[in-house]
Amino acid sequence: MKLAIGSLIIGFVVLGLKGLAYWMTGSVALLSDALESTVNVATAFAALFAIRLAARPADANHPYGHHKAEFFSAVLEGVMIIIAAILILKESYTAFLTPRVLDAPIDGLLVNALATVVNAAWSAVLLRQGRRQKSAALVADGKHLFTDVLTSIGVIVGLLLALATGWWRLDAAVASLVAVNILWSGSKLVKESLSVLLDEAVPEETLGVVRSIISTEAGGAIEAHDLRTRHAGRVTFIDFHLVVPGETTVFEAHEICDRVEAALRATIADAKITIHVEPEHKSKHTGIVVLD
């Protein structure tokens, strides 16, 4: 929550600095950079709302919790990044057709560089903490800020080249190239977030770990099949059918399940596990073989 509030504050500070840089120079590239920062502020609001919603406990209407709220926020950020890129391309096209000499370019670049340093530092914080906390909203916000840093660097390089050569169309040309990069980044973020909303399985490496734990820890059972996984925010959902011998008592089956669940939770943080116990004649002989 504190990180989301910090993103909002940083967003306003950087927007103010970039707006000042544009006001000092009249550069369309700096204007485009400032336009993207307005998206930062809007998405910071969205991330704050999503994190608060995702933190709510499960209830009667949402028995699996509210974890996916963060991924809706991430999709929104990706869409807004794409919109910002389109706006930048539009402004760059206009500036390319009617180039103009900039006012106080050095002063404006210094102000923009300060905003870029602030953004880069905060982006690193969000990415590190978001991955540590498995927060999709914080990671998305960090990636978004990083694209903003790339935008700013591209804008600065373009203006420096324009100053050195006197060819002011470079301002718009470099801004267009950066906009294409932002467009790709936003599309990738939307794709990744939608895969989670569509309940995509955990990565193959994690799936292998789950299979191995079931195989080694479910002693007394025969096999496990119909393994399904998905993740939402910090939570990884795991469910499967566990086949036990027909003479196994309810108590013994429960002990096996407890042992498997404990091993899974010790390896995969915030795992939610559902095990359906079945008698021997339900064996499919195609699942996970339990090692004695």
TrEMBL record:
Keyword field: Cell membrane, Membrane, Transmembrane, Transmembrane helix, Transport
Annotated membrane topology: Multi-pass membrane protein
Pfam family, one: ZT_dimer
A GO CC term attached to the entry: plasma membrane
GO-annotated biological processes: intracellular zinc ion homeostasis
Domain Cation efflux protein transmembrane as annotated: residue spans: 7-198
UniProt cross-references to InterPro entries, sorted A to Z: Cation_efflux (IPR002524), Cation_efflux_CTD (IPR027470), Cation_efflux_CTD_sf (IPR036837), Cation_efflux_TM (IPR058533), Cation_efflux_TMD_sf (IPR027469), CDF_Transporter (IPR050291)
Localization of this protein: Cell membrane
Cation efflux protein cytoplasmic domain residues: 203-280
Molecular function terms from GO: cadmium ion transmembrane transporter activity; ferrous iron transmembrane transporter activity; zinc efflux antiporter activity
UniProt-recorded name of the protein: Protein p34
